[in-house]
Each structure stands twice: as C-alpha cells, then as structure tokens.
Sequence to fold (454 residues):
Amino acid sequence: MLQYWSQLRDTDTYWTYAHDWDVVLDGAERRGPNAYSGTIRMFYESRNARGWGREFYDDLNWMVLTLVRAYDLSADATYLTKAREIFAEIIGGWDETCCGTNKGGIWWSTDKGSKVTASNAGPVIAAARLFERTNDSSYLAFAKKTYEFWAANMVDPATGHVYDNISSKGELNTAWSFTYNEGLMIGAAVALAHAEKDASRLTLAHEIASYMLDKETRPTPLGPIISDGPCGSKGGDDGELFKGIGIRYLAELYLADPSHTEYKEAIVRSATAAWTYARDPATNLISCDWAAPYNPDTDGVNSLASAAMTLAAAARVMGPGEPRPALVYEAEETNLHTVGIEAKYGGFTGWGYTAGWGSNGQSIDFLVDVPKAGAYDVELRYATGEDAIRRVSVNGATAIVSAPFDATGGYGTYGSTTLALTLPSGKSTITFGYDFKSGGKGFLNLDRAQLVAK
Fold:
C-alpha cells in the first residue's frame, strides 16, 4: 500500500486490482474487524467510480470473489449485492453451442474466441460461495454444472494437469502449465466440497495438488518452492501473479484436509523464500523470482501482490493471527479522500500514517464499530509541525466544527489529543476533513485513533 496505492488509485486496472484488494482482505481476516475497515471501503469506492463492466468473464469473477470476501469481513450487504449483479453477467457467458465435441463452458471474453480455466473454475468458487450466503440453489446448480464440465474435459486424469484453454474450434491447449490453473481447480473442488458438505470432491483436488508439487516447483536451499519458471517467460506481468493465486487455493485445500502436511510445507517454504531471498530489506518490495536475489526490474505491484498472497497463505496454515486491540483504528487504514499514506518519519504505530493532508476538501473516514450507543473519547495520535484544524463529522453530520491539533514540534514528534463524540450502537463513519470555511489549516500526519467508552 505504501508503494503502490497512488498507482492503484490513479490507473484503471481491473483483475489485478481485485487481487490487490483481496490481499487487503487477507490482512483484515487475520487482524480482526477493526483492521482495514476503511481501506476495504476505499477500494470499493475507487472501483465504483470507474464502473464494474469488463469484457473478460474471468476478470469479472475475480471481482466477484473479492466482493464476497469484503461482505464476509464487513457484513456490509453493498458488497454482496454488487457481487450478485456482476455474477449475473458471468452466467450469461455459458454456451453449449461450442466447442467441437465439448459442448459447454463459459467463454473467456465476449468475443467468444476461447474458454479458459480462469473463466470456468473461478466461477465455480464464486457460485458455491454465493449459494452459501444467499441460499439460492441456482448458484449451486451452476457451480456443479460448470465444475463437472471442466473436470471432465480439461483435467488430465492421469496426471492432474489442468489444461489452460479450449478454442472456439474445439482445440485443447494442453501444453501450457500455470500454477493458477491448478490452484483455481483446487479451489473449485474445495468450494463445492464445502457447499455440498461432500468431502469426496477433494479427491480430484488432491490429484491436481500432486501435479502442482511435482511439476510446478523449482529448487532452493530451503527445498522446492511453487514456481511458474523464470520470471517473464510465461504470461509477462500477468504471470507474476499466478503462483500467489495457486498458493492461495492450495492453502484452502490444506485447511480442508490438514492431513496433507506436504502442502503446508510447500506453502511455508515458498513464503520464506520470497521474504528471505527476493525481498529488498530497505523497502520490503519483493521481486518476481523467489529463488533469486531481489531484482528491481521485477518488483512491480503484481510481484508484490503475489508474494503478499503467499505470505498470507503461509500465515493461515501456520495458525491464527493476533487480533488488533478492540476499538483501535490505524489512520493509514481509513478511507482516504485524496489523502496520502507514508512511513517516512519513525515513531508511528501500525505500518504508516496519513500524509500530504493540507488542502481544502481532503478528508479521511474511520469506519468504526462500537458495542453500545453513548459518549466516547476519541484519542488521536498525530504529528505536525504547525497548528492544524479539522472538521469532524459522524455519519455525515457535523460533530465538531473546528477540532484543534496543536503543533507537536515536527512531523517525527508525536502528540495526542482527545475529542468527545456521541456514537450510535454498531457501525459509524467518523470523518476528519480539511474545510477552509470551518477554519481548516495546517498539515497533519494522523497515526491512530482509539475509542474509549465514557
């Protein structure tokens, strides 16, 4: 986020954006409900401003999967509603008039040139999860139909290799081997097993996982790690994400059946290699090839997201995380409205603080959740080299016209102030805005907010 949020915010990415958002959800899942609540909303609003349409059905599905997770972690029905709306388009991509003798499957895109694993196995996962959250049996029926077609036609029964695509002429591409194809089909089997409460679905998942561990690894001093081969040789920039996706779903298989300790070991080795060999200690950027030293030529956002997925997967299979303290919210995890984040000055908590916040109209939203209605002290930790003033609102209504933040002696020197607010029970949005008409002034690096019931 420190390195790439401005790029993600200002460029119109889609399927990779879904994965970057999903990585944020990994953090929220591990650290508890008051972690990343504002960031989750920020990713939604940024995408919503651009629109949700896309010609590639697999891209749409990545967004559905992320929206469903956002719903799970926030209990905000907005995300589930949008997921269902997008998935209706994916259902429309199913076609039984093609291809060759293999009649069925979901097109890769609206141009109907081919059908790929990502646009078929991925929607199985999404449909199964939508069924569990809506109890709409049509989702489960669609998941089963799609899974059974793809498993029958696009998985080598002898090896567990998942083929990449079938052309509109019925030609199977059996040559390409990508970790994310195996991972997605593993994820499809695990999702159906969970939705149907039928562990027999995992049999094929284990066969595919065996192929991944046998054919899609490379050696390191730690042992073999999951790999798609030398970076840049397969898929270009998109390919940098593949192994992280494969490992995400391999972790789900391990969690569904922990008897296969070889999965856990491969995941942890891969994460350790990424962190140990391919990371730049000065920036925490991680390049694409985890078996080699850090390479600044391949440390883009996709490489970092792939590594973050793998680190999160390793954390999951190793055990539960430590939740954030109750009612403590990091400012860098708020919903930012043209406000930046950085970690330039030391002494902050969490992983950074808000920065570049000194112009009219800029604001941040803390999305908080309190157990009971009433009066709360909001203790704010901040740093500023000059006196600053911000307008404070609760759920859109002004609560404090001009909240003062006295100079602390510099942007590396932290102080604190306490504001008294009245909050309703449950979820609220506390907004701090630079409003010139309300006396807004000064730059302000906000680090953290802690709510204390009075």
Observations:
- Residues 330-453 form a domain with the Jelly Rolls fold (CATH 2.60.120.260).
- The chain has two domains: 5-318, 330-453.
- The longest helix spans residues 57-74.
